[in-house]
Specification:
One of its GO terms (biological process) is intracellular signal transduction. The chain is of the alpha+beta class. The chain has 14 helices and 27 strands.
Length: about 575
């Protein structure tokens, strides 16, 4: 976890005031000890008016420990914090009370500039600079061994990475060979650039030529970072969005997973586009098929991949193409097999005179034509699909309520299809709030469905547009990131670039255009602003909050369309 729980210049009274005003029961922070040099104090909020301050002993080579004589010792302060957050409790040796450690109360980062990478380790910084940088590339990270300080990491000509300690005191920022203190980290880095070359304590000569930018963003700084991304870089003559998207295009070649199954003769006609195929390793395989060669009806193939979040928040997606006339049965078989109860359709059936998705549902609702079953029901192999009701939520999206029946067993299930109508192929929606409402609506229904069954069961969201990569990838990426903010609170870090990398490692080509990539940022910014988060940001710290409880309540579409 990141080390922003470390507050460099506060005393015990100030720590209590911060925890009282911005924390909740179980919130904590770490600060320098006022009584012991090179040691620290863990300050915990137990109740609104009760706080505990526990000494963290720094034993040098022996590591860090809570109190004295503890059997648990840790190489770094970050490892100690990680350990007790995982346990969520800590016993106070003085009175035997149990302290709950759940919510790190973070301090503001020293800069919003993208050269700052937070609390990554020295090894991670070295790998980043060697993999993505070039001679003269640099970044700044927090020091893990000296939490009050920072580290300037620079790649040299021989591919070696030098780590230079940046000392931070009440006077400001300085370094070995500096004869002055600079009031801000940005001013310090600018001074380093002017002074180049810099000679460190081991006589290494380093030059700072170009920053290696981070795509990680803390929610508290999102609006600032968003505005900075529009600024053209003086090193690359392109803005931050273009720089990140171009980097995505360049690393696509690293995802060299096989896509052989989609090329087999019996499966070729099942692909809407011959070059957009699912990876073999995570494609959805239809059960009860013999895979008889050259027999499409017995193939377990469907152009779909299972998508999961790196954050492990429990939600799974089935990313697939818009069904073809000859794949509708496979599509419904997948829905039944995977127990998916929500379908997100991000396309029209036809756009600009070209088919984008074959209509895989009956033409009329049972309400509209109750006497003509041929209009409101359709059968795909052993699955009967009945369109019970259609609800127009707004001009931009509608919801269809289906009843699925397995004709072999007479088992029935309800399935809900959310069709978004205001997102053209390769384009982006004009009404961002309607897009966010769409996402919130299907999540309300998803939560209601999940609340009715044991937590061990999961219900994947099926998402498709036409090819199943552009608009599909954008909706999945936005939903993943909003989930993290809702669950982790407004102090969390998000990484849109890394999220898209993860999606592309699970389905090729997710997020097709730079415009779609930029839209991810726009949608997330609007989500944050719609919750008035910007007004909740203090100049020094952020309140830890759960957005699930602060978001504007919406009526679930389940209530409006259920029968």
């Amino acid at each position: 976890m990141l080390g922003r729980w470390f507050h460099r210049n506060i005393n015990g009274i100030e720590a209590e005031n911060l925890l009282r005003e911005f924390g909740q029961n179980g919130s904590f922070l770490i600060r320098p000890s006022q009584s012991t040099i090179n040691s620290y104090t863990l300050s915990v909020r137990c109740t609104e008016n009760i706080f505990k301050h526990i000494k963290i002993q720094n034993n040098g080579d022996s590591g860090y420990e809570i109190g004295e004589g503890s059997s648990d010792k840790f190489a770094t302060l970050a490892e100690l914090v990680d350990h007790f957050i995982m346990k969520e409790t800590l016993r106070d040796k003085l009175d035997g009370s149990i302290l709950v450690l759940k919510y790190p109360l973070n301090c503001k980062e020293p800069t919003s500039e993208r050269y700052f990478h937070g609390a990554i380790s020295g090894q991670e910084a070295t790998k980043l600079l060697q993999d993505k940088g070039k001679p003269g590339s640099y970044l700044v990270r927090e020091s893990r061994s000296e939490p009050q300080n920072y580290v300037l990491c620079v790649r040299c000509e021989n591919n070696r990475v030098v780590h230079l300690i940046i000392k931070y005191t009440d006077k400001g920022y300085t370094m070995h060979s500096f004869e002055k203190f600079l009031p801000t980290l940005d001013e310090f880095i600018n001074e380093c650039i002017k002074m180049c070359p810099i000679v460190d304590v081991r006589d290494n000569v380093v030059y700072l030529k170009q920053p290696l930018n981070s795509s990680r963003i803390n929610v508290s700084n999102f609006n600032i970072r968003f505005n900075e991304l529009f600024i053209e870089s003086r090193y690359k003559n392109k803005n931050g969005f273009s720089e990140e998207f171009e980097s995505l295009q360049q690393i696509d070649g690293k995802f060299l997973y096989e896509r052989n199954d989609g090329c087999k003769s019996e499966n070729r006609a099942k692909n809407r586009f011959k070059t957009i195929l699912p990876f073999d390793y995570n494609r959805i395989k239809l059960k009860n098929r013999t895979n008889k060669p050259n027999d499409p009806s017995e193939s377990d193939y469907i152009n779909a991949n299972r998508i999961q979040s790196d954050e492990s928040f429990g939600k799974t997606y089935l990313a697939t193409q818009g069904p073809l006339v000859n794949t509708c049965s496979d599509f419904w078989s997948m829905i039944w097999q995977e127990e998916s109860q929500i379908i997100l359709m991000i396309t029209h059936e036809e756009e600009k005179g070209r088919e984008k998705c074959f209509r895989y549902w009956p033409p009329a609702t049972k309400e509209e034509d109750p006497k003509n079953e041929n209009n409101f029901s359709a059968t795909y192999k052993n699955l009967k699909i009945t369109l019970l009701k259609l609800t127009k939520i707004c001009d931009d999206y509608i919801v269809r309520n289906f009843l699925m029946t397995d004709l072999n067993t007479n088992e029935t299930r309800k399935v809900y299809q959310y069709q978004y109508l205001a997102w053209s192929d390769h384009g982006v929606p004009e009404n961002i709030q309607n897009t966010l409402d769409f996402i919130q609506d299907f999540n309300c229904l998803y939560k209601e469905i999940c609340d009715t069954v044991p937590k061990s069961r999961s219900f994947p969201l099926t998402v498709h547009c036409s090819a199943g990569i552009g608009r599909t990838g954008a909706i999945i990426a936005i939903d993943m990131i909003l989930d993290k903010i809702k669950i982790c609170g407004i102090q969390c870090d998000i990484d849109i670039y890394k999220t898209v990398c993860s999606l592309r490692a699970q389905r090729s080509g997710m997020i097709q255009t730079e415009k779609q990539y930029q839209f991810l940022y726009i949608a997330i910014r609007n989500f944050i602003q719609s919750l008035n988060i910007v007004n909740q940001i203090d100049s020094r710290v952020m309140q830890n909050a759960n957005f699930m409880s602060t978001s504007t309540p919406r009526t679930s579409s389940l209530q409006s369309i259920s029968n």
